[in-house]
Amino acid sequence: MEELGWGTQLAVKLRMLVAPPWKRVRKGSVLNMKLRGEISDQLKTRFSSGLSLPQVCENFVKAAYDPRISGIYLHIEPLRCGWGKVDEIRRHIVDFKKSGKFVVGYMPVCGEKEYYLACACGELYAPPSAYVALFGLTVQQTFLRGVLEKVGIEPEIQRIGRYKSAGDQLARKSMSNEVREMLATLLDNIYGNWLDTISSKHGKKKEEIEEFINSGVYQVARLKEEGWITDLLYDDEVMTMLKERIGQKDKKSLRMVDYSKYSRVSKWTLGLQGGGEQIAVIRASGSITRTRSPLSVPSSGIIAEQLIEKIRTVRESEKYKAVILRIDSPGGDALASDLMWREIRLLADSKPVVASMSDVAASGGYYMAMAAPVIVAEKLTLTGSIGVVTGKFILQKLYERIDFNKEILSKGRYAELNAADQRPLRPDEAELFEKSAQNAYALFRDKAAMSRSMSVDQMENVAQGRVWSGQDAASRGLVDSLGGFSQAVAIAKQKANIPHDRKVRLVEVSKPTPTLPEILSGIGGSLLGVDRAVKGVLQDITSLNGVQARMDGILFERLEDLSGENQLFLFIKDIVNYFD
Predict the structure, then answer these.
(1) What sections of 231-328 are H helices per DSSP?
(2) What residues make up the catalytic site (predicted)?
(3) Which sequence positions are flagged as catalytic?
C-alpha cells in the first residue's frame, strides 16, 4: 500500500476532529465485519439490510489507512455467493495485511468456501464446537419433467446450443451428456483452484491436501492438529486476546466499530478520495428485464430502460474519462440485452469502457459485457452461455383433469403460437417456433463474434450455450484479463491515459436511493411489525409475479435462478398436493 504524504496525513487528522458523530471512530478500535449469507454486488443504502461487496472491499481499503483502526476481526459464516465475490474479498484481505495491521478470522462453521476465504487471514480461530464439513465440492441439477407430466403439464422447450442448460429442469428428466461435460469441467476448475490455493497457503503438495479432504474432515480438532487453524477459542476469548493486543486495559468490552457504521466513513475523510479525473462506475446486477413491471419490487434486477438512461447520461458527460461496467447477471430478456449492448457500444465509441464481471456474466450478462472493448473476469466467474432457450407450457391434460375449458378465436395462421396453451403446437407452428429461436441465437452469436473480433466459426466453437470459468474463457478469447474490480480500474486508467500512480475519483452512477420499504425497515422495525408486513406483501407479490411469468412467459434465458426455480417447484408441488 502507498504511504500518504505528510500534508494528507495532517488533513486527515483535522477532518477526523470535525467529523459528524456517525463517522467518528475511537482510536485503537477494531473493525468487526461479519461475512455471511448473500453478498450483493450493488451498493446498499443505509436503510437496507445485507452485505454489499463494494462496501466490504472499501472497508478493507479504508481500514488499512485509518490511523484509528488497529486491525480487523472477521467473522466468517456460511456464504451464499459465488466464487468470484469470494476471490475479490480474499484479495482485499491479502492486500490489507500489507498495512502491517492484524486481520484475525473467526469461523464457527467451516465449509470449502468459508475456509478458502478464512485462510487468507493472518490468524484463524474456531470454537471447539465448530461445525466442519470439508468433504469436497458438488454440482447438481434438478429436473421437474416427471412432476410436470404427473399433473398434466407439457413443456415445449427450444434450446439452441448443445450446452445450454437453462430450461433443462423443465424439459428433461436427466442431465444431457453435453451439460454433464460442461458442469464437470467447471467443477474441476473450482476444485483445482481450491486445492492450488490451500496447498500454497500451507506449503504442501496438492496431493497431500486432497488426501486430507478425502479422509472426511468433520472434526475441528483435526484442523488445529494439521495447522489449518491457529487455535480453538470461543468468541469472547478471541476478543479478550485482541484487547490485550491493542493495549485496552479497561474492563469494558473490546473497542470495536461494526461494518454498518464504518461503511459511513467516507474515503475523503481518510484522504483516499481521488483527484480531478473521474471514472464512472455503472453496476448491473440480477436478471434482465426490458421495462419495470407494475408489480415488481423497486431496484430488483437489471431494468434495461433505466440502465440505458444512465449509460446515455455518462456518454453525454465530458467529466468522465472512462467507464467501468460492473456486471453480475445470469441473463434474462434477449431484446433488453441487445438494446443495452447497443448503448454500451455507443458509449465505448466516446470513451474507454471496461467490463468487470463478478460471480456470473452469462447469456444476457455476457451479451452486455461483450459490448465493451475490454473484459475483466475473476478466474471462476461463470462466463459465456452464448445460446438461447425459449419455451411455453402446454396445459391440455391439466385442463382436462380440472375440467377447465379455454376457447380462442384467431385470425392469422400463427396467431395462436404464443396464446394457445390448451393444445400442442401444430407441426408448422413448431417449425416456426424453432426458426425463431435459431434466429435469436444467430444474432447473439454473430454479434459476439464481431464484438470479440472472431470469425463466426471461431465463435461457434466457444458458443453453443456453454458456460466457461473466467480462466477458460480468457484462454478462448471471451475475456481479456483476469482480476477483480481494481484490475478493471487500472486498465480504465491506462486506456484513458491517466498515470497509474495518480488517484482518480470513482463515481457510482447507479448508486441506489432508499425505497419506502427499506426506510420503514430501517427506522421502524419494531413499530407494530410494520416492516415485516410490508416486506411480506412485497415478497408475496414477487413470488406470485415470478410464478406467473413462468406460466405465461415463453423465455427461459437464465443460467441459474434458484429463487425462481424454487417458486416454480413449490407451485407445482401445490398442484400435486391438490390432486393427491
Answers:
(1) 235-246, 259-263, 304-316
(2) 164 (proton donor/acceptor), 363 (nucleophile)
(3) 164, 363
